[in-house]
Each structure stands twice: as C-alpha cells, then as structure tokens.
Structure of Thiamine pyrimidine synthase:
Amino acid sequence: MGASSCKGVADAQVGANNPVIIVGCSDYCDQIRTIWDGMKQHFIKAGVEFDFVLFTNYDRQVEALLGGHIDIAWNGPLAHVRTQKRTGGASLSLGMRDVDCSFVTRFIVRNQACIIDLAGLKNKRLAVGTRDSPQACILPLQFLKSEGVALDTMDVTFFDHDYGKHGDTAVGEIEVMKALSRGDFDVGIVSDMMWQRALSSADVNAGSGEELEVLAARERQGAGLRPLPV
C-alpha cells in the first residue's frame, strides 16, 4: 500500500487552499479507524492539520482523489495503477509501507495432487482469491499465462469476498486454504503472508485435513528448487 496525490487535479500543492490535509483510506478491517486516529494525532502533534475519510471501496476513493475531494489517497496496488492511468502518469507517488516490499504470492498444492511443476497444472482444479485481488488473482493468473499455462485447461473457481477492497481483507485467501484442506481443489493461490499465518496458527497442516505445500519450480539451469516468483 502507498500514498498517492494528484497534482493538477486537486490543488497543485496539497492543502494549498485548505489548511487541513485530507487523506482517503479503505475501510477494510475493524482496526482501520484506530490506526488512522493514531496517525491523525501523530501529524497534529507535528504541527500538520490532518484528517481522514474512510471509503468502503477503492473505486470511490480513486474518484474522490481525482475529483479533488481528498488530497491524498492511501491506495492498494490496483488502485494505485488505476490512478496513474486515469491521470496519464501525472499522479504523485508519495511513499509506500516497508512491509509491502518484496511481497510474494504462493501457489499451494495438495500433496496428494502430485503436482511438481507448472506443467502439472493442466486439468487441475484451481482455487483463487477474489477477482480484484492483485496478489491472489490478477498477478498470479497473469504469471501463469506468461509461463504458457493454458487456464482454459483448468477448472478455476474464484472465492469472491469483500469485492471492491482489492483483496485487503484476505478472506478469499483464507477460504482458498480451507477448500484445499478439504480436498475440494488441487492448487490454490494465496499470499505468502497469509500462508505463513495459517501455518503458525495451525489452520493448515495440523493433521485434520489434506497436507499442503508450496509449489516450487526448478531453476531453468536445473540447479535446485526455488519458490515461484510471483
């Protein structure tokens, strides 16, 4: 996630005609209000007049930024790209969270599915997150296409939850792992963050369902194994 501002759409200088800087953010979890209340107090103590507006979906947030109703949008990656395209690249990228650097997506397979590489995905049942999730749907499917995997040979099911929040709630990813553990699918797509959380909480591989593992691809030089780079 990162902050974007639209030079030339709203004020050329953020807050130029209004002493209060208004930031838009997606209301995707119960903690969001607490987080931004803390941010507000931080900026006010630093001498910056600051307030925020919560949006139920990123599309409304992007439109509010383009319409000059907010000064800054705290966007996810898909909303960030849409803002850039809508402004012809004129939007300003102010920064992003350090925890989002090197964000990784995993292809998770059932051990019993006997899938050892991408070629083994043909005719398999694929579970993906919500359709507007960059990490659990859009980018991984694009990656598979770029690697020559014919998606029309697979039975693809989308776990659409909280549409409009671009996968921020990760509910679709949680449902993907539950379905894999039940044996309903052969392979699923989730972020490494959600995979690690599921392992730590014993929501997967705890002996009560199918054993799951990360699909790895052999290096093109044939040396060792590496996670798929999505």
User: Anything to note?
Assistant: The chain has six helices and twelve strands.
